[in-house]
Automatic annotation (TrEMBL), chain A:
GO terms for cellular component: plasma membrane. This is Peptide/nickel transport system ATP-binding protein. The keyword Nucleotide-binding applies. One of its GO terms (molecular function) is ATP binding. One of its GO terms (biological process) is transmembrane transport. It is found in: Cell inner membrane. It is a peripheral membrane protein. Belongs to the ABC transporter superfamily. Residues 6-257 form the ABC transporter domain. SMART domains: AAA. The keyword Hydrolase does not apply. It comes from the Bacteria. SUPFAM superfamilies: P-loop containing nucleoside triphosphate hydrolases.
From TrEMBL, chain B:
One of its GO terms (cellular component) is plasma membrane. Keywords: Cell membrane, Membrane, Transmembrane, Transmembrane helix, Transport. Belongs to the binding-protein-dependent transport system permease family. Residues 98-295 form the ABC transmembrane type-1 domain. It is a multi-pass membrane protein. It comes from Mycoplana dimorpha. One of its GO terms (biological process) is transmembrane transport. The chain crosses the membrane at residues 103-125, 137-156, 176-195, 234-256, 276-299. This is Peptide/nickel transport system permease protein.
Length: 333, 313
């Protein structure tokens, strides 16, 4: 996979706070071609967000991240890059959209200013030029009455408009990659669809790659060309959207998809959730992290970490059971 | 905005009348009799009759309501009465002293703002550093030391030992430096914590992460993104500290022999010269009310949410 815009190899993140040490990301690999969309799905706490934000230096204050592995972005290694250079990547090469647009925007600054400062920083625009560009960006994200919006404050906008402003900020530095961390989770269902449509439209116009962090399988189906399923900091399954959604092979992915409510479910029918809860991310486990919840569990599952095995034509899966059956009868299709 | 200010002004006028009423009652009912003091000034061994005559002369036997009414009536006409002690008209005496207290408090406030921002920013830019720890210690010391002690310390250090500054008077900038530091140190200490803690809280909010995702440096995030968010809190605290500084002038003015309003107030209290006391209190109350009005306006300008409400009020 040469020529990928983003090539993540064996990424491991250890987080240290004053009290605890965690390994939320353990040996994750994937790649994103320019212009394509990769979705990262998984439950809360599966390491989706950290795997994307920690290497960019986007961590809350007081948290120290120790990062191993390799992230090649546009040919440049991001792991171990000094903060000063990393700042040029953030907002410039890689734009970011956050989950909650209310708290992610600065309540004390006008929307126009918050967009314009990205242009000033990364494109070397004067403040006049940057304001003019902010107006263009607001039109690009299809904001109603963009001239007035420029002078408004975040609290004067609705949730959907705020997320559009957030998107305008994220694309203001003309990024090649957009990292969208659950961009629709905090929004109404109708607004969710609009925002996803907007992201797809912008992707085509600006030829951006998108890493979409989500737990909404509907969004994945509608946007992504590739899917990474994460569980407890590791990749459980990785493949094209068709492979992962239509022929899920990892029992966790199968459980996730089976848990989706169906239109033919009678009203009042119980949710088909996965039994149990994800493990607490402490020291790395020398076993399959899903073993305790897995319907197919074998003896080997509690003894060794399953490796991600890629076979052409189907999704790569990190599961002893699936991979054992594959190895016995080698794929000929 | 304009309507809001006019509402506040109307409220302020009512508040001022109520406050003077309260002060008048308190001052008059305080122990000690000015008539005794005046009669003794005239003849050292004043008789009971002489004292009664003085009381009659000053109208001290009138009912309280009548006395207050008389005072308010003439005060509204710009006449604050005459001092019992000196017989001087209080208005001009007060006017000649206003600027001294004004310079003292304004200079102290500027000193407090400069110092508090300096200390607060050092801590916020380098959290956990030696600089941060030093600012905490300075803040703790500044907040723990009473102003008369700080003043005495400054006089001893800067004037007596090092001979850098004059010990008293109000001639030139150099004579103001110590009074400003004395009156401004405690507010500076309190406000530096407002800056430091406020910036730290603002930096932990999600918008700071957004700013970081834009590629802004920590310094720029603090100045451009966190600072505007602490402005309302800071202005509020500055207003409270400003009030405290007006009160602090009562200590600082005598210490540096400044002939300001607070000094006049103190003389009035010592002599039970309640016309002077009442006039000084009127000045203090008015300055508090103006200060509060300024804080409200400042809050409105610094907080976008309040600004829109103000415009609609």
């Amino acid at each position: 996979m040469t020529g990928a815009l983003l090539q993540v190899r064996n990424l491991t993140v250890d987080l240290f706070t004053a009290r605890t040490a965690l390994r939320p990301v353990d040996g994750v690999s994937y790649s994103v071609q320019s212009g394509e969309t990769l979705a990262i799905v998984g439950e809360s706490g599966s390491g989706k967000t950290v795997s994307n934000f920690a290497p960019l230096g986007l961590m809350p204050t007081g948290v120290v991240a120790d990062i191993h592995g390799s992230i090649l972005f546009d040919g440049t290694e991001l792991v171990g890059m000094p903060e000063k250079q990393l700042r040029r990547i953030r907002g410039g090469g890689i734009g970011t959209i956050f989950q909650d647009p209310m708290s992610a925007l600065n309540p004390a600054l006008r929307v126009g200013r918050q967009i314009a400062e990205v242009g000033e920083l990364h494109l070397g625009l004067t403040s006049m030029q940057a304001e003019a560009r902010a107006l263009e960006l607001l039109k690009l994200v299809r904001m109603s009455d963009p001239e007035a919006r420029l002078r408004q404050y975040p609290h004067e906008l609705s949730g959907g408009l705020r997320q559009r402003a957030m998107i305008a900020i994220a694309i203001a530095g003309e990024p090649k990659l957009l990292v969208a961390d659950e961009p629709t989770t905090a929004l109404d269902v109708t607004v969710q669809a609009q925002i996803i449509a907007l992201l797809k439209d912008l992707q085509q116009r600006l030829n951006m790659a998108i890493v979409l962090i989500t737990h909404d399988m509907g969004v994945v189906a509608g946007t992504a060309s590739k899917v990474v399923v994460m569980y407890a900091g590791r990749v459980a399954e990785y493949g094209t959207a068709e492979q992962v959604l239509l022929e899920p092979r990892h029992p966790y992915t199968q459980g996730l998809i089976a848990a989706l409510p169906l239109p033919e479910d009678p009203p009042g029918s119980p949710f088909r959730g996965l039994p149990g809860a994800p493990p607490i991310l402490g020291a790395p486990v020398k076993a399959c992290a899903f073993a305790s919840r897995c319907p197919l569990v074998l003896e080997n599952c509690t003894k060794a970490v399953p490796q991600l095995l890629s076979i052409s034509g189907v999704s790569a899966t990190a599961c002893h059971v699936v991979n054992a059956s594959r190895l016995k009868e080698p794929a000929n299709a | 905005m304009r309507t809001l200010i006019s509402i506040r002004l109307r409220n302020a006028a009512v508040l001022l009348v109520l406050a003077t009423m309260l002060c008048f009652t308190l001052v008059v009912s305080a122990p000690g009799n000015v008539a005794v003091l005046i009669a003794e000034l005239r003849s050292p061994k004043a008789t009971f009759e002489q004292i009664r005559a003085v009381e009659e002369e000053l109208g001290l036997n009138d009912p309280l309501v009548v006395r207050y009414g008389n005072w308010l009536g003439s005060a509204l006409k710009g006449d604050l009465g005459v001092s019992y002690k000196t017989g001087e008209s209080i208005g001009p005496a007060l006017a000649g002293r206003l600027h001294v207290t004004g310079i003292l408090v304004a200079g102290g406030a500027i000193f407090a703002m400069i110092l508090s921002f300096t200390l607060g920013f050092i801590g916020a830019l380098m959290p956990g550093s030696i600089g941060d720890a030093t600012t905490r210690i300075i803040a703790l010391l500044g907040a723990s030391m009473p102003s008369f002690f700080v003043g005495a310390l400054l006089i001893y250090g800067l004037a007596v030992e090092l001979r850098l500054l004059p010990t008293f008077g109000s001639a030139g900038l150099s004579s103001w430096i110590m009074p400003w530091m004395t009156i401004g140190l405690l507010p500076a200490a309190v406000l530096s914590r407002v800056v430091r803690v406020g910036l730290e809280e603002a930096m932990a909010r999600p918008f700071a992460l957004t700013a970081s995702a834009k590629g802004l440096s920590r310094g720029r995030i603090i100045f451009r993104h966190a600072l505007p968010n602490i402005a309302p809190t800071y202005i509020n605290a500055l207003g409270a500290q400003g009030g405290a500084m007006v009160v602090g002038a009562v200590v600082v003015e005598p210490l540096f022999a400044l002939k300001g309003v607070a000094d006049l107030f103190l003389q009035g209290v010592l002599f039970r010269d309640f016309m002077v006391v009442q006039a000084c209190l009127l000045v203090f109350l008015t300055s508090f009310i103006i200060l509060n009005l300024l804080v409200d306006i400042g809050m409105m300008f610094s907080d976008p949410k309040l600004r829109r409400q103000g415009a609609n009020a």
